[in-house]
Amino acid sequence: MTARVSRETTLDAPVLEVLGKAKRPLKLKEIANGLGVKEDGYPELKEVLARMTAEGAIYRSKHQRYALPQQINLVVGRLDATRGGAGFVIPDKRDGMLDVFVPQQRLGGAVHRDRVVARIEHRKARGNPEGTIIRVLERAQSQVVGSLQRGKHFGFVKPDSPLFHFDVYVAQEDLAHAEEGQKVVVEIDDWGDGTKNPEGRITKVLGDPDDPGVDILSIVLSHGLMTDFPPAVEEAAGRLRVDFEAEAGRRLDFRDRLTFTIDPADAKDFDDALSLVPLDDDRYEIGIHIADVSHFVQYDEPIDDEAYARGTSTYLVDRVIPMLPERLSNELCSLVPGEDRLTYSVIVKMDGDAHIHGFDIAETVIRSRHRLSYAEAQVIIQGQTPRPEHKELLFPIQTLRRLAKRLSGRRFGRGSLDFDLPEARVELDAEGFPIDIKESVRLDSMRLIEEFMLLANEIVARHATKRKIPFLYRVHDQPSPEKLERLRGFVGAMGYRLPPGESIQPEHLKRVLAEVRGKPEEELVNTVVLRSMMQARYATENIGHFGLAAEHYAHFTSPIRRYPDLVVHRLLKRLESGERWKDPALREKTMARLDDTAEHASIQERIAERAERDSIELKKVEFMERHIGSRFKGRISGVRSFGFFVRLDQYFVEGLVPAHDLEDDYYEFHENSFALIGRNTGRRFRLADPVVVEVIGVNKEERQIDFTLVEGPDGKPGTGEKKKEAGAAGRGAGSRERRKGGPSRRPQKKAKGR
Q1: Total-model pTM
Q2: How far is CA 110 from CA 96, 194, 448, 676, in A?
Q3: Are 31 and 45 a contacting pair, CB within 8 Å?
């Protein structure tokens, strides 16, 4: 479990100030002189310098001199590895610094998510600086999950994660009787230095790769996710109680309001509810009620420490790994119908054109009357009530949908981007084997919920900014100049235009998305524009949210599944209780704690997203294994020098047609036009071109699907030799009987924040 950082700030700031003013790296005695520390204070100063060095705040040279990393061309940050073997160091402190690119041969034994020190070797006029990792400050994990390859006297574990580009050496006595090909967990004893393989010992045998559940369990463990809660956490959750009548006496009592939840059909926890009360003069009181997790989970106690470590709930293809124990997530905090529940609410007064005429942020108690699925709410939006008890919901839900449309229209008018991309929904049988892949349709009922969650998030962020309190924002930078240049070239090749220059506004991208709507390349352009965006993250500095075109934005609406939302609730409650953070030391301590939370929560969010994506991609590969030899229509979704990717029309699955499979010509990659073009024939394969392909192989370890071209965009047949036998033998291809059992849907999560 990741430990919560606790910084001692008494001497930190003065040390940083002394080093910042120095003209050269300083020795201990020189730092002490600058601080006015006498000789008897040296031991404490040494401890402070050692801790700050371990944290990466300062750097100690081999000559025992100290300096700020940026003063000696160093960058401290997290390593974000790539599938190709290289990586990027994401700086802890941006200060205008771009991510540092590190080639594979300069990683120095560092692996994905390690906290490292990188020396900048080369700065470019444009693009990312290039560097070398010279020190690993903190290992992100201590174990690796993979497949065992046994030799006569030793073994190697090949990691499942494509971000780990090495095999782990395991001595004979440390093989734990694991058999060839089995999935195992190996504890790393020596990570090496990049010139030799890491060494470790097998601590757990998961089983054969085809055993039910082993595949997803491997993903869970390889990402360091925690499935079970420690006994102390479960015990603490079991002791929680609440006196609703006592709480109703000090809170706003909304139990008489018509309140309801709208969630996925398979949802187990309900962390938001809505209410609507008509007022005079075409005005409404809208309650956005959020589960009051902060009432139960106190800072720095066992449940909170565990929630901090997890950072978020993780939604895998076949299960949910929750942030909070079930006693909280599914019972005390879940806004189930017919039960009193504590909530923290944004209560908005709004007219019929969705203009806001005031709001309150208050502790409340509610009793939800209805638990609706998205499909049920959609039926009500369309004016039908199949169930008699839903008749009372016609007016509030239809009114909320009308107001949501006004809100979204205003949001889009200011430049907010809406990537309405189809998502894959994998259906599994009783044993977890994929039996179908379908499009997950986005309903108006989903948009209704999302719009009011966005509204609440903006309101609380604007409120915090106005009151100038330490706060945790959800921020989104505008695309980097390099990404903008690539995007400009891409849309230009597709016949669309972005304005020149490095500064671009959301409305420019919105215009391109509008122009492409309804055309064959719509999904592709949406995908590429989305990939050009920076990743949203948490931060204490409010730089706004580029994608939403919002000046103020935070995460407030999902504290059951996101730790930052819980923190935001606490900060708002502290504000309302009268705390103003006027004491500089208190403010500094609070900001340091929030900075740590922002970094950690952003990291955990990326881990959860990758685990979710890996689980879906794995099931896609398993599904397509049954379709080897089948032909499908699709469109070219990516072009590289080594071939082009095709996304199938029937299933949301992508695979590769290698360039060497195109044997009618020598094909060259034209980057500006995003095309492979035959040197002699001029035959082209471009983005969004329609093709017909045949599935010839899959690779579960790489989560890769291989196609061969059957028919090109020009209607001509593919000339690559069918490689069914080679694919079956060399790429893990084969058939598998369809298993029996009813379909189960992948657990869904709401689109409640960006």
Answers
A1: 0.86
A2: 24, 7, 45, 36
A3: yes
